[in-house]
Design brief:
With 324 residues, this protein is an all-alpha fold. The chain has one domain: Orthogonal Bundle (ABC transporter involved in vitamin B12 uptake, BtuC). It contains 14 helices and no strands. Helix 4 runs parallel beside helix 6 (135-159), helix 8 (180-198) packs antiparallel against helix 11 (221-243) and helix 13 (265-289) crosses helix 14. The longest helix is centred in the first third of the chain and has 34 residues, at 41-74.
Length: 324
Amino acid sequence: MLALGFILLIVSAILGIMLGSTPLTFSEIINAFSNGFDSSAGGRIFLYVRLPRTLASIVCGGALAMSGAVIQGVLANRLASPSIIGVNSGAGFAVTLCTALGIYGGWQLSLSAFTGAFTVVILVSLGARKWGASRGTVILIGVAVNSLLGAVSDTIVTFFPEVGVMSNDFRVGEFSGVTYEKLVPSSILILIATVLLLTLTNELDVLTLGEDSAKGLGMNTPLMQTIFLLLSALLAGCAVSLAGLLSFVGLMIPHAVRRISGSKSSHLIPLCGLFGGSFVCLCDTVARTFFAPYEIPVGIIMSFLGAPFFVFILIQVKGGHSRD
């Protein structure tokens, strides 16, 4: 399955680079490497538009999918994902605040998005544990958090109208404004979080057995839960700082991967990264080619696909009417 994931990722990246309002050919790309990227229009499009956009879609898709897999495991809730329980909204609020303060990229934006995401995921986790919340209640908490943070972000836009220029695209999620200044710091943090996560897959498997079972095996469950939630927040927060509020990636991809590879974390996490990156890259390619000469934000495509999927999973998990 890993080989299939890598192949799909490579194909998705090639399509993302070559397709668009101005299609690129292999010869144009090779000539750009040989003669310099500024020597032709195709070389400039490749270096300054297609490459950062394709890389950003792959990085964000993989990060959100891995974050969703971790959150679902730690909260023991297959309905949870960064967008549904408010993690993305926490990062989005932090990004909106930074933009109002004049911070448009770099490490400060990425770290602020992580802080917002981590704060929300910890609050939701603690609330679910303290109140013994059911799966449905956790989702309702997430809906409330999303609404609250959305209202706060709207308030910021009201007092700082210049933030509203980017707010619409940011809320639906899109990659047209990605620059290397945004891409590099976020990608480095996502890479660090991914490496750390891959070294802790055995611990994640133990944690998904249940808190009592994990304690019986000698695990410090509060510490490990905090570590995993921190890593998932770092992944989601950095992705949001790049692409905006992409929805449902962290829900759909982990479910699909579990169907084909099982729930073992050493397989689940890397496959979520590969398939998540491929999925978002392909969706972004569709968003800017199928509706030419118009380009729609990729987040709209995600919502069309993700909302019915969420309803289907909700009915499947709850049997349409049964309690948790």
